[in-house]
Amino acid sequence: MKKGQTPNPAQGQIQTQGTRKLHSLLELGQLIGLDLKLNEMLLKIAQKAAEVMEADRCSLFLYDPKTNELWSTVALGMGKQVIRIRSGVGVAGYCFKTGEVVNLKDVYKDPRFNKEVDARTGYHTQSLLCMPLHNRAGERLGVIQLLNKKDGIFTDEDETFLKTFGNHASVFIEMAQLQKARIDALEQSRAELERLNQAKSKALDHLSHELRTPLSIIQGNLRILKRKFQEQNPPFEGGRVFETLDKNLDRLLDIQQETDKIIRSYHEPQGQTIPLFPLAEQVLERVKRKASHRNLQFYLEGVTDLSIFMDTKILEGILEGLLKNAIENTPDEGSIRILLKREGTKNLLEVRDSGIGITPENQKSVFDGLFHTQDTELYTSKRPYEFNAGGKGLDLLRMKVYGQRLGFNLSMESRRCIYLPTDRDLCPGKISTCPHCRRTEDCLSSGGSTFCLSFPVSGENGLQKI
Is the pLDDT of residue 233 over 70? Predict the structure, then answer.
């Protein structure tokens, strides 16, 4: 402005409006730049458009190619009602189909306007500005529609600004649609996975049930056959044959029972408050009696006042399974420890053994089920709790399932014995007969495994409902 020139109020007002509109573009990015939820984003865009364009209402319609419709949950003044119209119907449909901007001073004079909407809602539409929205590829996303300019009619300047505003909004809408499509795809995958898991559980349940009856019949017939052969004169010399059949049949029965346990682990358990130290003490004494033929040292150490909320039978079964696994992998004269402790926001129950450990390759699959950490056939001829008795590998799978179901974590750390680097290297089963160890300490420090149950802490006493 030149010196001495009288200010023009109208010009100042135009500059103020222009500045406000430019600021609105920056505010649009701040409002929705980090919010990719589609419905919330559309609402914010509509509110900002109505505000800056001084319109009474704003509607955003997006195109649904599956139904060939324009739909909207954002029609200000209509609540959260979902509106759907055919893509070529009304002013919005015409704008979308042709790509033309529609600016009406009096909508009732235009045959494209659907008067039934006003009649149904009680709202009176007078002026209207409708413009198509495009994605970055130039394809039409939908339309933005402004109703009733509060002061006068929609101008050419309004059209120019709405085009700029719409271009900015379209970028965010496209991003939100892509994000929604990804989320929908993930949800569909999750639902499909859940359906497959249910089908798998039913199949396992059916398989377990179907195995139980024929295995029981085979077991009964085997006993009858064994008795008949023993009654022959002279007796049939087939003791080793029957012994092999019995052992392998027992293993099949064990697998069927373990499968039942895994299936039951998906069912809703009954919980109660469990003091960990007394329960660990009780389970350890029971396991020591079962392994009384072994020469092992057992220790229970750590914090004595930790408690969790869980099904007692489940926790007892898990701890007993971990101890059994440790005993079968630890040579005589070795040691096994249960350690209870609290670290940060976790209550930990660890079972540590001084056994031969697990090779790095086998550690990757130890929780997969039906997996043996020993490359040996010796376990087929040994009793539970004997060294290298091995197992079917289902115990650890069942524990992992319980952890996923009940919210605790089961992890493992293991170091293979430095003197037995591969599965083909066999331990003699007693430290004092090992050619590599001069002292017991040599074995205790050469390898071992630690299985850790981790429970989230909540409350003053570390009680956590899981």
Answer: no
